[in-house]
Amino acid sequence: MRLLVLLWSLGPLLWQLRTSLLRPEALVAPMAGSNPWTLANYQLVLSGDPPFWRYLTNSGLVGLATTLLTLLLAVPCAYALQHHRGAWRWGASVALVAAAMFPTVLLFLALLEIARSLGLANSLLALSLPYTALSLPLAVLLLRAGFADLPGELEDAARLEGLGLGQRLRHVLLPLLAPTLASTAILVFLASWNEYAIALTWISRNDLLTLPIAIARIGGSSVFTIPYGAFAAATVLGSLPLLLLVLLAQRAIVSGLTQGAIKG
Amino acid sequence: MPLRRLRAGLRRPPGIPGPLAVGLSALLAAMLLALGVAPGLGRLQGAAPQPVPIRALMPAPLADAVAGPVARFNAKNPGVRLEVIRGPLDTEAISDLAISSLLLGEAPFDLLLVDVSWLAKYVAAGWFTPLDGWFGPEVLAAMEPGARLGNSIGDHLWRMPLTGDTGLLYWRTDLMDRPPRDTDELVAISRDLQRRGKVPWGYLWQGRQYEGLSCVMVEVLQAFGARWWDGASGATALDSPEAVAAASWLDGLLRHGVSPASVAGFTENDALQMFAAGEAAFLRNWPYAWREIEKADGPIRGKVGVTTVVAAPGRQAGGTLGTWGLSLIRGSPHPEEAVTAIRWLTGETVQRQLALEQGYAPTWSRLYDDPELQRQAPLLVVQRAALQHPEPRPLTAAYAQLSDLLTRQVNGMLTGQEAPAAAMASAQRQSLQVLRSMVGTPAAAGTGP
Amino acid sequence: MKLSGAKALLMLPALLLLVAVFLYPLLRYGWLSGHASSVLTGLRPVPNGGANWQRLIEDVRFWKDAGQTLRFAFCSVALELAGGLGVALLLHQPLRGRGTLRALTLLPWALPTTVMALGWRWILNDPHGPLNAALRSLGAPSYGFLTTPATTWFFAVLADVWKTMPFVALLLLAGLQSIPADLEETLRLEGASRIQILRRLTLPLLVPYLSLALLFRLAQALGVFDLIQVLTGGGPGGSTESLSLYAYLNAMRFLDFGYAATVMLATFLLLAVLLGVGWLLLRRARIARTTGGPA
């Protein structure tokens, strides 16, 4: 059973790995005799213009900026939301859930106009603005659930000691909220790493492309043969950082979702 | 009591799992490094007090093809630095890229290499500067008739053609003595060769739902005496009996096994690859394919002939006009220098080299007359013949919609979702609807402007 | 408690950003949908009354795409919920190496959609892809997986299920972990079989999680874009085109912004109605269960 599940989720990836290591000729026809294995596909992808790692760093940069900005905006928002009662909070929660579900692609046209009129195009940091907005609803919901789980008397005690709101957040609440923060951060990072529609329309410069766009566009690298080997090499390279991240963070991801979101 | 708990809370470690913290900080460090390096590089490039930069966006194969000429241009013109941005290969992908760059308002280039099918749309969008001030009518007069098409709209010249490519028919010299003269012969020869087991397939072409299928359709419609676009009335005529006959012929190629069913998913590359592997007798493709076959060490090298596309018996054939040309982006800060670059890139020297090395068809008549070039580029005769009667795609700003509609319907027909007559009737109906709604008045459909 | 100034201020930046990114586009589309803004107007908006909406109603392609999008969404979400539940139950069991297993199962969800869409395109390639290579080695002729409407649709659903089932599993796993272990233990001691425990305890308690996953995934699947664009391009013959792809083509390829805005707004309204109805139904079902049904 376990094997079956593993085969299902990893099978296509392993096939990509195999494809990426084969010579282009060996993909089209079985090769008799000579050694079909090669690293040439990786060489091709890494020596491209710009080299492939550039897309990885671009995506990483947007992801980090988005994550930081999201947390920065979501924490105060979640805190304030948690300290309200009644219909207002219920309305806000429903609105947040609705926004969290909104399919991103429907926004791109208006966002393109915004990018144009505010001069935000072709900037990775500017790209993290819409990404932050897209991640905010989920982040606020997760963090609010996190705040709700903290014992209330803790903050009261801190208030009695004369700590201001900023100090309370920094010294008391946030350290306790760290696990929720970590899992929220990972979810936000993943979402921004994978976003397609907005990156497709906000970024037109080759050297600023994020990974999903670059991969979708890599087909342009060769005229004669269909570069499936290079595709595969790119997908493998593009998957490695995520494999690492997911392996390291799976506990945080699962626990983060366990903690909340649902309670809204 | 509360105070003690508070202190305990203060001392509590953040609680991020150890390996995660390490991983995240490593990632962060890498990103910061990249962030630090990238702007530094940018500043370095921008800082030098330099010649006027001219940037041109081109599809990858053409960008590679002009790399040498660009270097020579830069050596000869110290005041200008021409830089070619290498876009994607696929025509639709590079159009998408150009459009999103232009929509974003800060076109990161001065020149755009424009496919003939985009021109009307881009001009209507107001993205180009006319070239009349630099190139008079006598310039185009020195070109082959087909190469003159699709560069002017209204009274203005918007594009200087760099290539004079048209669709061509590739045939196997080892399997037949002469190429077919019409569509009937093409099918007959194919079936005969297939029956005798010489080749698995007869005719390969581009049937995927994309712009390439429109190029095929233009040729097939012409071959059966149909028209896609009636310029006089500004409407399509896709449901005529001739148009349905054309679609039925394509459909029949698949139904009767002359072409493999996989043609319905083929682009130029897929078709070329299968043909180069020796699996078919005929191929419809662009001129560059011949150099690709001859360059590679495949089973059919030296056994391929090239001729103009064929029509139904008694009809006039015409290959689809697929020329590329350079246009000047409106708002370019250095139009004079950009035009200098256009002049050089579309000039005879560069076109000669493109013909020799890549097989692109020149536009200048003088090059076709050059005996030296004729000897070294054997395709020249055929290319010139094809440029006498090429078929342009509908020259309308709504072309992108019309093409998308047609390929959608025709590909639906090829994959068995609709019969030819129904597919063409539906394409016609939807085309008229698009034209009507775009213009905003119901008149444009049939009764003229 | 009243909304105090300081706390309102805390929410302000987030609120502003949310309004700019979610509310402004909807208002803008509403405005644009009353205008012609295309190459024929030089990309300048010109009021055209209800012409865009009139066109939408008559546009067979829009309605065909709407049907295709709904079919795609319902099928893939149904499969994802069923599969996700199975995977979640498996991952919930105390097994050796559970952490690694969870991480590896999660991996497809973490990858960019375009990455694997390209991978699938290669796997399904006719005639060189591995699936066709396998067919040929069995002596069968190669098959046009992406040129046959039925198989193209099937593999688009499959690719979507492959990619998003882990997310559903993750949500349900979170739900499973919230069920107290001693409840299950009690039932087991009473002699209930595993199936009975699942039916009487686990599933009812999972309902909120299942509904959330259902609504969430339904919304995302109805907006499917990158998977379709990269895997099938909407083909063959437009048989897998989704509403968002159609909207994208109208904007970026046809430069018809007025109509693109209309299509997007219509898609949004369709989605809002569907999800609203779904939400109400789920809520009613839950209330009925808690008030009337057996405990």
Task: Indicate the overall shape of chain B.
Answer: globular
> What order do the strands of the largest sheet of chain C run in, or round the barrel if closed?
1-2
How many structural domains can be distinguished in the coordinates of chain B?
Answer: 2
**SS-derived structural category of chain C:** mainly alpha
In CATH terms, what is the architecture of the largest domain in chain B? Answer: 3-Layer(aba) Sandwich
Task: Provide the CATH superfamily of the largest domain in chain B.
Answer: Periplasmic binding protein-like II
- State the name of the first-level CATH class of chain C: Mainly Alpha
Give the number of helices of chain B.
20
CATH architecture of chain C: Orthogonal Bundle
Rg of chain C, Å, rounded = 24 Å
Please tally the β strands of chain B and state the result. 14
Report the mean per-residue pLDDT of chain B as an integer. 86
Average pLDDT taken over every residue of chain C: 86
Rounded to the nearest angstrom, the distance between the terminal CA atoms of chain B is: 88 Å
Structural class of chain B: alpha+beta
Regions with little confidence, pLDDT below 50 for 5+ residues of chain B: 1-21, 34-47, 441-449
What is the alpha-carbon Rg of chain B in Å? 27 Å
Span from first to last CA of chain C? Answer: 36 Å
Low-confidence stretches of chain C: none
CATH class of the largest domain in chain B: Alpha Beta
